[in-house]
Design a protein that fits this description.
621 residues; alpha+beta; Rossmann fold; Elongation Factor Tu (Ef-tu), domain 3; Alpha-Beta Plaits; 8-stranded antiparallel sheet; 6-stranded mixed sheet; 15 helices; cell membrane; Elongation factor 4
Length: 621
């Protein structure tokens, strides 16, 4: 039972494919660890915490970024079963990973912390699972915590799903209590995968990774027929054909096998190095006597936030291009296209699902490919209608059309917030200050409330979540989804250095926020730009109108030092001569903005003054 390498073509009636839906820190990775140990796949020597979180970033931050799959043996009533667990992320920015996992499953464990209750992002993923018609197994975790209230939250889950309170299983993933009952419930309640074993082979690609030595490794779920090695396969969307070098399963590491049958989950290796030939959502079939109709794939993810990524060293541009290609294979929600900036040189305009997605992508590029990057201020996609009726899509402030547009549209989002009822007033105040419109409010229980708002996406994606957490002492949770476009009063704010616009610092903001953005950025740059031999004006402008100004004072040599006496006219003559020189230098001199200034000014965080002063105080103590 410890190895599956020789076990092939398991009967579909004995297979159960499932995933775990949970919020960050509700114990999903711990439950996966217990399941791996309980099924005997993972011995004591190979065990480590968060086993399925393979990335250093995941382990450091305590979050799941990449979905992972593993094959597990289970025995119930003297019958052997095969369980395929597909681990999923919990953060809203990785919803695309979740949707891919759900498409490959028939069941889902809804895991909820017995001390906190269901969170907004978990609720969103639950509705996603219900849309896929998955069988939901409700489970309350951390029942051994002193603050746990299993009866209260079991009633809440039963109310949301529409089941009896007795159907909600109670476990402690840390101690292992109740985990075996969850696996039994999985076997009894989740339907077996459906498919035609005699039909031409069809398998769905739900993930891919790039291996330096083996090329592209493609993860598949077989729907019809069987996939065997040494056959020639065809990718149905691209038409590319390859010889299948290896077929295998993951239990918990890669193991080659003789083939995969209906409902089985595993991996393919073709030795292909071109990352574009293995698209997530594609259908794999055989080249000869293959299937005619592809499977219903995934909808392509729509980027919500755009940001420019530029290498610190211009020579790293080809390295960044190759890195983005390889990362896109592993993260299909990432989009990119080449971009040139007058201030930052050559780089890429990248599309992300949210700010955490941007942060994680940048961290992975820097760690896995050894790059030093500058990311520009993130912005959403705007629609602009010009006076002649032409529609333009703007993803970058530098693409903003000249002249006064007839109409400007910005994306809006449906936002759901779940929080204790005592914070309703603070949440309403925050949402209204972000141009939000209330759609409704429901009480999930006596003490927990769900608020629904429609608000501009640009107001949500930057720092809304941070403010929400601080106003609710960390108890609120939030989820959002895009909901079309609406006309709005937006302007482009340009930052001018000595009268020249620097495209990297431009931003598109609401008319009411233009002054605060202009003064903040001008003040930031005044501290970051080193003093020159001449005075440097820093201006914020909307069109031709200056709305804010700061000045970097010139460095001055004391030309009067040698005048220890004599007539005042001598001193005046020297000062006039210096003034003329400064004037001439100002006309020919250029303001050099150091890379550190770009990094600091374009970082989405506030300046670190407060943190620094706190550290200084601690040091003095």
């Amino acid at each position: 039972m410890s190895t599956f390498a020789d076990t092939t073509f398991t009967s579909p009636e004995r297979i159960r494919n499932f995933c775990i839906i949970a919020h960050i820190d509700h114990g999903k990775s711990t439950l996966a660890d217990r399941v791996l140990q309980l099924t005997g796949v993972l011995g004591e020597r190979g065990y480590r915490d968060q086993y399925l979180d393979r990335m250093d970033l995941e382990r450091e931050r305590g979050i799941t970024i990449k979905s992972q799959n593993v094959r597990l043996p289970w025995r119930l009533d003297n019958e052997d079963y095969v369980l395929h667990l597909i681990d999923t992320p919990g953060h809203v920015d990785f919803t695309y990973e979740v949707s891919r996992s759900l498409a490959a499953c028939e069941g889902a464990i809804l895991l909820v912390d017995a001390a906190q209750g269901i969170e907004a992002q978990t609720l969103a993923n639950l509705y996603l699972a219900m849309e896929h018609e998955l069988e939901i197994i409700p489970v309350l975790n951390k029942i051994d915590l002193p603050a746990a209230e299993p009866d209260r939250y079991a009633a809440e889950l039963a109310h949301i799903i529409g089941c009896d309170e007795s159907d909600v299983l109670r476990v402690s993933a840390k101690s292992g209590e109740g985990v075996a009952e969850v696996l039994d419930a999985m076997v009894l309640n989740v339907p077996a995968p459906q498919g035609d074993a005699e039909a031409p082979a069809r398998a769905m690609i739900f993930d891919s990774v790039y291996d330096t030595y083996r090329g592209v490794v493609t993860y598949i779920r077989v729907v019809d027929g069987k996939i065997t090695p040494r056959e020639r396969i065809r990718m149905m969307s691209t038409g590319a054909t390859h010889e299948l070098l290896e077929v295998g399963i993951i239990s918990p590491d890669q193991k080659a096998c003789k083939g995969l049958g209906v409902g089985e989950v595993g991996y393919l290796i073709t030795g292909v190095k071109d990352v574009r030939q293995s698209r997530v959502g594609d259908t794999v079939t055989f080249e000869k006597k293959g299937a005619e109709q592809p499977l219903g794939g995934y909808r392509d993810p729509v980027p919500m936030v755009y940001s420019g990524l530029f290498p610190m060293e211009g020579s790293d541009y080809p390295v960044l291009r190759d890195a983005l290609q390889k990362l896109q294979l592993n993260d299909a929600a990432l989009t990119y296209e080449p971009e040139t900036s007058g201030a930052l040189g050559f780089g890429f305009r990248c599309g992300f699902l949210g700010l955490l997605h941007l942060e994680i992508t940048r961290a992975r590029l820097e760690r896995e490919f050894g790059l030093n990057l500058i990311s520009t201020a993130p912005n959403v996609v705007y629609g602009v209608t010009l006076e002649d009726g032409t529609d333009v899509e703007v993803t970058n402030p530098s693409d903003w059309p000249e002249g006064k547009p007839r109409e400007i549209r910005e994306p809006i989002a449906k936002c759901t917030v779940i929080a204790p009822s005592e914070f309703v007033g603070a949440i309403m105040e925050l949402c209204q200050s972000r141009r939000g419109r209330m759609d409704g409010m429901d009480y999930l229980s006596e003490s927990r409330v769900e608020l629904r708002y429609t608000m501009p996406l640009a107001e949500i994606v930057f720092d809304f979540f941070d403010y929400l957490k601080s106003r609710t002492r960390g108890y609120a949770s939030m989820d959002y989804e895009e909901s079309g476009m609406q006309a709005s009063d937006l302007v482009k704010v340009d930052i001018l250095l000595q009268g020249e616009a620097v495209d990297a610092f431009s931003a598109i903001v609401h008319k009411d926020d233009a002054y605060s953005y202009g003064t903040k950025m001008a003040g930031k740059l005044r501290e970051l730009i080193p003093r020159q031999q001449f005075e440097v004006p820093i201006q914020a402008a909307v069109g031709s109108r200056i709305i804010a100004r700061e000045t970097v004072r010139a460095m001055r040599k004391d030309v009067l030092a040698k005048c220890y006496g004599g007539d005042i006219s001598r001193k005046r003559k020297l000062l006039e001569k210096q003034k003329e020189g400064k004037k001439k230098m100002k006309t020919v001199g250029r303001v050099e903005v150091p890379q550190e200034a770009f990094v600091a000014a374009l970082s989405t965080e506030e300046t670190n003054k407060d943190d620094k002063s706190d550290k200084d105080k601690k040091g003095k103590k």
